[in-house]
């Protein structure tokens, strides 16, 4: 069974940085797409970033492009989201997600229903 466990969230001042981690277990992820989503209070969950585990292609929402970086450490089976120049509007619960359907079918990486597995989320709060 696939398990995703996020960590690294916390409280940071605007302009600061955080690195989120997503420890993945349960199978090999070479044929998976890994994604980060976030949900702010009163808002729908939205796409943040995604990457193909095996070929490291990366994709970002316009709102985080140039500030956030998604990466992975295959030896540790962990995906990271490095977040720099944080803004109060980045405050949200951040979720890690995994999908093999996107890898095999070419489904779009920014839609939630295309992901099969989700972590429990980690809170990120950015103070102004």
What's the count of strands?
11
Query: Outline, from the CA principal axes?
Result: globular
- Strand fraction equals over 45%
Oligomer: single chain
Rg over C-alpha atoms, rounded to the nearest angstrom: 14 Å
SS element count, helices: 1
Mean pLDDT: 95
Q: Spell out the helices and strands N to C.
A: EEEEEEEEEHEE
Given helix and strand content, the structural type is mainly beta
Q: How far apart lie the N and C ends?
A: 40 Å
How is the biggest beta sheet arranged? 7 strands, mixed
- In percent, how helical is the residue content? under 10%
Residue ranges: pLDDT <50 for 5 or more in a row? none
Describe it for me?
- The chain has 128 residues and is mainly beta.
- It has one helix and eleven strands; from the N terminus they run βββββββββαββ.
- The strands form two sheets. Strands 2, 4, 5, 6, 9, 10 and 11 form a seven-stranded mixed β-sheet that branches.
- The mean pLDDT is 95.
Descriptive terms for the model:
globular; four-stranded antiparallel β-sheet; mainly beta; 128 residues; seven-stranded mixed β-sheet
Give a brief description.
The chain is mainly β. It has one helix at 101-105, and strands spanning 3-7, 10-13, 18-25, 33-39, 46-52, 58-60, 68-73, 78-83, 92-99, 117-118, 122-127. The chain has 1 helix and 11 strands; from the N terminus they run βββββββββαββ.
């Amino acid at each position: 069974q696939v398990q995703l466990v996020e960590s690294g969230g916390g409280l940071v001042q605007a302009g600061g940085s955080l690195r989120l981690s997503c420890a993945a277990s349960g199978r090999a992820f070479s044929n998976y797409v890994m994604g980060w989503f976030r949900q702010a209070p009163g808002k729908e969950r939205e796409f943040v970033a995604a990457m193909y585990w095996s070929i490291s292609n990366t994709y970002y929402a316009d709102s985080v492009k140039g500030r956030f970086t998604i990466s992975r450490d295959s030896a540790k089976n962990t995906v990271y989201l490095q977040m720099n120049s944080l803004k109060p509007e980045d405050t949200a619960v951040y979720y890690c997600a995994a999908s093999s359907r996107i890898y095999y079918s070419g489904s779009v990486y920014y839609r939630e229903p295309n992901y099969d597995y989700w972590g429990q989320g980690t809170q990120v709060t950015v103070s102004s």
